[in-house]
Design a protein that fits this description.
329 residues; TIM Barrel; 12 helices; binds ligand PBG; alpha/beta; globular
């Protein structure tokens, strides 16, 4: 009698793993290909496509080049892009951000003119537009002034909506911003403009490469007085609750990889769509390992996006969106 007979082994989960077809038959999680969002960085100029050193495979585009990129993205089935403006001229109050002819506004108009079906999401924050690199107006103490920043965000959100942005995505972490933006949009006739809130956004080291891409590193201090402490999960539930009460349509958890528990928590807490942001550092560390031949990039990306989905994300914002969809379609 062998060991299996002695212990009467009756549960044999391996039966369901016996072949590719069997595994596909019983697969529980599939990434929502319609829910992948490709971020795009928009810079001034014409015919500009500049690779970002810290993010292999990602570039910054002028408006005309971004439109060409969007055509490619739409052709492979991408349904939404997330725009970041990276202006040359910055000042203390981010005035380039509420300029009706600013980068995000111009890019949105140009994209919508040729690809009206492609959803345009605009990241709404000031750090790319301020000369000090913080996400709002600085007060006498050198901290970000919450309520004055709210006015700025509301004003900018209206110019985004006027340009045709489908979804504004505030990523600044000021208190009360969702309510302020919702009221401003509604008051200006934009009750149809959707808000995707960066609800639980952490002060993370994983934004490192983005700060090179968006030229938005703070000139002094850090973002810990407004972005969340990575140790706090209950506080994420509170931020989510507040944003829902203030009128958010979609909730986001950011970053994704070290915060999968909070994707799940958010999914279980509310019945709104949940997004996660697979951020720049998560992208770059995988790319770097793959370039060294230390990891199989395709398998690792599949595993990550499946993991975010299994955790509860309906929408995944990822710099891998284009490559992933190309492979899948
Ligand atoms: C703007 C913003 C940041 C990211 C998205 N929006 C940077 C930050 O908060 O410092 C990070 C995205 C990424 O790392 O891919 N506030």
């Amino acid at each position: 009698m062998n060991i299996a007979e002695r212990f009467a082994l009756t549960e044999r989960p391996r039966r369901l793993r016996s072949s590719p077809a069997m595994r596909a038959l019983v697969r529980e999680t599939r990434v929502n290909l319609d829910g992948l969002v490709q971020p795009l960085f928009i810079v001034p100029g014409r015919d500009v496509k500049t690779p970002i050193g810290s993010m292999p495979g990602v570039s910054r585009y002028s408006v005309d080049a971004a439109v060409r990129e969007c055509r490619e993205l739409a052709a492979i089935g991408i349904r939404a892009v997330l725009l970041f403006g990276v202006p040359d001229d910055k000042d203390a109050v981010a005035s380039g951000n509420y300029d009706p002819n600013g980068l995000v506004q111009s890019a949105t108009r140009a994209i919508k003119a040729v690809l009206p079906q492609l959803l345009v999401i605009a990241d709404l924050c000031n750090c790319e537009y301020t000369d000090h690199g913080h996400c709002g107006i600085i007060d006498e103490r050198g901290d970000v002034d919450n309520d004055r920043t709210l006015d700025l965000l509301a004003r900018t959100a209206i110019t985004y909506a006027q340009a045709g942005v489908d979804i504004v995505a505030p990523s600044d972490m000021m208190d009360g911003r969702i309510g302020a933006i919702r009221r401003a949009l509604d008051g200006d006739g934009f009750s149809g403009t959707t808000i995707m809130s960066y609800a639980a956004k952490y002060a993370s080291a994983f934004y490192g490469p983005f700060r090179e891409a968006a030229d938005s590193a703070p000139a002094f201090g850090d973002r810990r007085t407004y972005q969340m402490d990575p140790a706090n999960g209950r506080e994420a539930a509170r931020e989510v609750r507040l944003d829902v009460a203030e009128g958010a349509d979609i909730l986001m958890v950011k970053p994704a990889l070290a915060y999968m528990d909070l994707i799940r928590q958010t999914r279980e807490q509310i019945d709104l769509p949940v997004a996660c942001y697979n951020v720049s550092g998560e992208y770059s560390m995988l790319k770097a390992a793959a370039e060294h031949g230390w990891i199989d990039e395709e398998r690792a990306v599949d595993e990550l996006l499946t993991g975010f989905t299994r955790a509860g994300a309906d929408i995944i914002i990822t710099y891998f969106a284009k490559e992933y969809l190309k492979r899948r379609s």
